[in-house]
Amino acid sequence: MYFTNLSPGSYLFRVRSTDGDSKWSPNEKTLRIQILPPWWRTNWAYFIYSALAALGVWGIVAFYHNRQLDKQQRSMEVFERIKEKEMYESKIDFFTKIAHEIRTPLTLIKAPLEKLMRGLTSAPQKEKYLAVMNKNTDRLLDLTNQLLDFRRLEAGAFTLSLEERNINDLATNIWNNFLPLAESKGIKINFEAQRSYSCKVDEEATTKIISNLLDNAIKYCNSVVQVSVTGDENGFATIQVSNDGPLIPADLRKKYLNLFSDQKNR
Fold first, then answer.
1. More confidently predicted of 110 and 3
2. What share of residues in the chain are helix, strand, coil (percent, to 5)?
């Protein structure tokens, strides 16, 4: 007798005998049989399967995680390159703007210097021209100090230092600096103020703005430049520079003061 294809498990084999008269013996023999599962269905095999599955899941997660890290690393490298480029361009822009600022006092020194060299000035005029040259020399020194001060640029910030100033005095001093240049070009430069106005301003930024406005007004006028100061009771003052030359094209007007608005936003 054969018993094949039995499933793994525990079996009890019971046997009784019979004689020729088909009488069964009361005695019964039993045999307990344990059929073991094949090795691929053992507990150890299932443990190995679970370990391999867990290892596979971990591998997939680790691969995805490393892929995300690589992606972030590449993004950071691109971001750093962009920031380095922006910083480089910011430095170049800073030097360009300082060079532009230096050109104005140099021009204001050159005009009275030429007159003094020609010897066609009286003693009072000489004192006046020398005072103008002295003021603009101080201006050049101040701009040079700004050029050497890299900390403001590295910090990426431009902060305004607001102080209560007499706007008439500030505008008058700048206007006086430009008189020799205007006279050398045969241009009449007028100054008008209804009364004295005081408000909080950043002297350096205001000087740059008015100087650039006057420099361009003289450069592109026909014969007359007008500087006027007005204000109100709320501490606001308006400085207007105009000339009789051609108007600034409409598409360029918004960009005219970008030099200072860019610095303010940093």
1. 110
2. 60, 20, 20
**In degrees to the nearest 10, what's the CA dihedral of 190, 192, 198, 203?**
-10
Looking at per-residue confidence, does 76 or 95 come out higher?
A: 76
Task: Quote the CA–CA distance of 117 and 253 in Å, as a whole number.
Answer: 39
Nearest to 177 by CA among 222, 227, 221: 227
pLDDT tier for residue 48 given thresholds of 50, 70 and 90: very high
> Of the candidates 264, 90, 266, 240, which has an alpha carbon nearest to the alpha carbon of residue 162?
264
3-state SS assignment for residue 241: strand
Per-residue model confidence as pLDDT tens digits over 115-131: 787 776 677 778 888 88
Neighbours of 171 (CB within 10 A): 23
Angle between helices 203-219 and 43-118 (to 10 degrees): 60
pLDDT band at residue 58 under the 50/70/90 scheme? very high
What backbone phi and psi angles, to 5 degrees, belong to 188?
Answer: -95, 125
Q: Which domains are delineated in the chain? A: 39-157 (1.10.287.130), 163-266 (3.30.565.10)
pLDDT 10s digits, 16-46: 887 767 777 777 888 888 888 888 888 889 9
Asked if 215 and 179 count as a contact pair (C-beta separation under 8 A), the reply is: no
Q: What is residue 152's three-state secondary structure?
A: helix
Burial of 125 (0-12, 13-18, 19+ CB in 10 A): middle
Residue ranges of the alpha helices (H) in 185-225?
203-219
